[in-house]
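Supplementary notes for students who missed Thursday's class. We covered one full example, reproduced here. Read the sequence, then the structure, then the short commentary at the end.
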Amino acid sequence: MKRKTGCTDYFPLPLSYDAKGAKIYTTVPGHGYTMVADMRGWGYLTGKGALGLDPETAGKIQDEMGRYVTSCANFMPEAVELLHELCEGLRFLSCAEEDESKRELMMLRIKAFLNNLKCAREEQMPAAENNNISQR
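Structure (token representation):
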């Protein structure tokens, strides 16, 4: 049996945010939807001794935070992979300073990395906003 080493082994990505219940879920094989997190902070957002926001505004803020946390978690593995590639590219670039062709090649790789990062982020963020299991 493969040893579990990280949180995504226990809570597989992608995560889904349920705005109706203010909870974050994942789908675990053999178990179906499993709650990963319960978005807290309602008392802080609405409390008289805290922010004192009206329920509609507080709900929007709580949901925005839930979608943000969900999208960040879903985006993290790809971001880490892309950052490792960038680090390798920068290390290679520093070794190839005197070789113009190698430097140009690495600059193209770095530009491609930044473009991939931008595209990956754009794919994740809109998905998180529409990723509401209570609407399914």
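Commentary. Strands lie at 16-18, 23-28, 32-38. The longest strand covers residues 32-38. If anything here is unclear, bring it to office hours.
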